Amino acid sequence: MKTESLGDQIALEHLFLDFMQMKDFAKNPIIMKRARGVWYEDVNGKKYLDGLSGIFVVNVGHGNRRVIDAIHEQLEEMTFGPPLHSTNVRAIQLARLLTDLMPGDLHTLKFFSGGSESTEAAMKLAKQYHKQTGNPNKYKVISRYQGYHGSTMGALAASGTTKRKSPFEPFGPGYVKVFPPTCYRCPYGLEYPGCGVLCASIVEKVIKEEDPSTVAAIIVEPIGNTGGIITPPPEYFRILREICDKHNILLIFDEIITGFGRTGEWFAAQTFGTTPDVICMGKGISSGYTPMGGIAISDRIAKAFLGTAEENVQFAHGNTFGGNPLSAAIALANVTEIKERDLPTKARERGSQVWKRLEEMKRLGIVGDIRGKGLLIGIEFVKDAKTKEQFPDSVNLGVRIGKMALEKGLILRYDPHWIAFAPPLIISEDETDKMMDIFEECTTTVLSSVK
Known about the structure:
By secondary structure, the protein is an alpha/beta fold. It has helices at residues 6-13, 22-27, 53-56, 65-77, 89-101, 115-132, 153-157, 162-165, 198-210, 236-247, 268-271, 299-302, 325-340, 343-360, 397-407, 429-450; strands spanning 32-36, 39-42, 47-50, 106-112, 140-144, 175-178, 215-220, 250-254, 278-281, 293-298, 367-373, 376-381, 410-411, 413-414, 418-421.
């Protein structure tokens, strides 16, 4: 839409949005007004099919009646409790529900305001755990290039996405990176399965070079977003689990994006058949009806933090809105909705539909790789499907397709060489077809101007 006045444009220029140059945005801003189901509507009445769940968040869709009713009910009861002195009924109910859904023995919960707080807390937990179990020199965190764990300093230090972390360097010591499992473009020049899953086994070599007595944790996204929906081979996490067990290292899964049904199971830990020591939660835990996050901790790790006041072994971490009763009530309703409607199964069904449509688009000759799980699917564009040669950066194919889709009323995650789909898990078969019809039309149109 066009801003109504010079004053409106100036006001927008003074509002910082995520990863945007506001001078450009203010010239033709998108200002949303309402949302229902899988659709947004802007202030001009234009509708947008939400092919990204906002930003991998709104798993139950917009305007969910169960969640809205829970908000109203909790507003009348209590919206904030004294966090240094008490918990609340909703937080206890949510914890009880989540422990039933978690893989393995991840039965202890701590709640936060969002994903960045969750990943920060998980790394802090790992360091304190080792100090309290006789290994005070374990402080290093191993993570992956192209990964992203949040915008706060510790989470950003563990991130490996250059353009997001470089402006804020240097970070504190103790953050070590390894290459991600990008099978389609293996950093070691190998081919799966003959590679022996080197991307996983080489982590142990890194640990040995760093000195195992100094490594506290490995933190990974089960499926990496910022690198282009990086999806590891089946053995990858099993190997990481064995390495962590061997060297007394905590395995942390950053499931901010992949949790709560997104990959076709409750958590990607179940999708990949590997139980970590800590799961970080956010986004889908509340479907964006309120900011919320949390960590789930295994019984073995949680035991080290249970003691008397004199022992002083409690987790030395707090935040104002952790377990907030309003947020907990919203998350409780949201998770109950996902469970009762069996949305993880629906994610697999609609994900198969998206995958099929992308496979059909291989006839265009530019579909290099399709990857992901459930309703978290990415497509990588290539100039030559046989050689995997990419288009020159100047072509900016993915961005052009994504921007055209936005003009036509479809919100996607786009980068120069890839595009991702992650609509609300409630999306219907017809809505999925509409999403893919718009995407294919935009891809064909942009491609005709390139070749």
